[in-house]
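re: ur question from earlier - yeah i can do the single chain one, its not a big deal. heres the input i used so u can compare w yours
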Amino acid sequence: MTTPTAPTTPTAPTTGSLRVPGATLHYQVRGDGPLLLLIPGGTGGAAAFDNVIDALAAEYTVAAYDPRGISRSTLDDPEADQQVAEHADDAFRLLQLLSPGEPARVFGTSSGAITALHLLTAHPESVERLVAHEPPVVEVLPDAAEHRAFLATVQETFHAQGLMPAMAVFAAGLQKAGATANGDATPPRAAAEIELPPQAAARAEQTMAGLPYFLGRIVPSFMGYAPDIRLLEELADRLVLAGGQDSHGELPYRPAAYLARQLGVELSHFPGGHTGLTTHPEQFAEHLRKALST
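and the output i got, formated as tokens:
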């Protein structure tokens, strides 16, 4: 039985950079113990984990990084297309650097969870346990064709009208998908109803700066990605699929629930919705700690 660790004063992380093909990755490391690699989604980068990293660092050596093209991780070619396999290779190279020869625990959320799923199937020897929180791999769903058409509309709007109209179409489509799946019984909570912690609110400027790259090059390739279900079945004993307690039926939740049924594993429910990491950091960290050690 693990003895609870007394709270400690947070220490400054060790930061570094890693050259990978086509990019330079910025990463930070904190804590002591077995390696836990955190892969963020969206445009938040490593800062998305600011409110949970200290709780996890009491038990793990926690590494978080900015995915290529996000925040401090720069691309050699700013216009380069982005592929899930390439992002997963970045994660693998970080594992080789920080935990050479030893498998690590990995957590990914949203698009970061898609990266993590590919990492698991491409390099299973490097992953001891993976928690994938709401990976929006809509290609696994029976109604994938509808989502393909929706994503095409988002891209058409982006190129014809610009970022904010496209984001409006994107957000409305995610809500519509959730309402349809729920029979309009439990519509998603509006963003205005959620009070964000001060650190999260302060990251809004970075989030906005990264949106053109995210919407234009991450969303199409990542949400068009189809994981290898056969390989995931073989590796299901080290995979935890997670969904938000408040996001039942919403589009990012549905692939996680569907994959869990396909693989014959239980779907783990984490606090909050798709952004529970931000809105419920303390409870989220505790659920993640348990999921990693089960």
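Residues 1-9, 179-197 have pLDDT under 50 and may be disordered. not sure if urs matches, ping me
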